[in-house]
Amino acid sequence: MRRTIFPSLGALLVSTVILATIYPRRYGENQQSILAERRRESLLSNPTNMAPPSMTTSLCDVFSGRWVFDNTSRPLYKEGQCKHMGTLACGKQGRRDLKFQQWRWQPHGCDLPRFDATALLERLRNKRLMFVGDSLNRGQWASLVCMVESSIPKKRRYLSNRRRGRPTIVFTAHDYNATIEFYWAPLLVESNCDDPVIHRVDNRIVRVQAIEKHAKHWSGVDILVFDSYLWWRQGPKIKVSWGSFESPDRKYEMMKMPRAYKMALNTWSDWMQVHMDRSKTQVFFIGMSSTHERAEDWGGIAGHNCFGETEPITKEGYWGSGSNREMMRVLQKALNKLSKRGLNVQMLNITQLSEYRKDAHVSIYKGQAKNLTQHQIANPATYADCFHWCLPGLPDVWNELLYAYILQN
Description:
Helix content is about 30%, strand content about 15%. It is an alpha/beta fold.
């Protein structure tokens, strides 16, 4: 699926630089320069023609491609060499088929730049990079820390342990005065799920117009990477509170998920417009992370899911029931709204490339055997996690895409 990801003039000019450095294969360097220059001239001569184009012009859409098995350059790090993966370390939790670690994303028509931890750390020198969102974003944080950690001497790096009730984890590279952080805000706005440890509640409540509680923690950060989708898919409706959780006269409303999601994103975008320093902060939003709970979507056995899957889906353009187009449109409209206000947020459209990876979920390999019932033990597919991703694995590719954009900012 091909999506617009450069919704403004400024972003389009940035895209030209990025695409010129994502090594071309179909076009020579002179041809690439000519095409880029024509693109600039066209935009500058007609600034009213702002219909956001796709990267699939004569250049390259890095989000459209295929998975290539590569056991030479993959994985980017070894599971035993990084301690930050937790329950995402599927090999440690008993998974024996590790082929999922050895797939490389190959865009059509170009190559992604090779990830260089030192180059990224230099770009982060004296800066803060923060992932803001849910456990999927925490997994991407862990992935990036694992990708850079080996290039930093042990005595020159530090991880702040998350204390109970504190929403932030901070990895510090002392020689660069740089931090890679994660902040827990699964719904972006305030909710009764905001405790980073105790958040598994049956009756979720969200305050779609309240964000300052979280936003004050990411104010002033140099690079922000947001994610909020999965928690908005837990049922057709969610309970919305129109007062503080402490107020005795607060009112509630059961609201359809897309509407509540839209209101939350509007609150987020309004805060961003007022408080973000456009000259300092680079902002990204991670697109929908695909789930694989229905094997019949890809021609598998009805009633099965990602459990036991060992190969990616090869049908180009595959789209399963685990990704919601309506929710994706809500996010895109919110980002377009910000763009019109002069704040460019780059969406990393990882949905399609993640759709193919039914083999890359943690499935049953997440160290939870002590909490299982006898029925679940006898039927592993019933407790397979087809939402989260093993490490090393798919989130590493998300970070390679993020790296390409940060490097060419």
